[in-house]
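Sample intake sheet
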Amino acid sequence: MYSQKVFEHFRNPHNFGSMDNPTVVGQVGNLACGDVMKLYLKIEKNKQGEYYIQNIKFETLGCAAAIATSSVVTDLAKGKILTDAMEIKNEDVVKALDDLPAVKIHCSLLAVDALTEAIYSFYQKNNQPISAEFEQKHNRIITCQTRLKH
């Protein structure tokens, strides 16, 4: 059973929709369940010279949990510097929703993966250093996406 917070985010998702001229877009999907998530990020520099997520929007094709987790990820990431946004974990999303059924946990992972891919894309496009740990996260996502396509 879904929590009240899942229903709230599903019925009234935060930051829903596409974005004109995003800095980067992260997209992931799970062909097994049919969920597809796309995150649009507008990234700016703050006064300290750090890159941060000035605006974030999402489009998700999927179940209530997929939409709710996408909404929560946008709430958790908006306004954060990229290094802090990269620390958002699956568990953070589940906790923000007051839990998810075990069979729906993969939805929260997709939302976090879309954020990871968007930030990774930004780092690549802007010749920013990518840590070994972040590279491993990206490679795990790419490997999973490739396996799903075959």
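Comment: Strands lie at 24-30, 35-45, 51-61. The radius of gyration is 15 Å.
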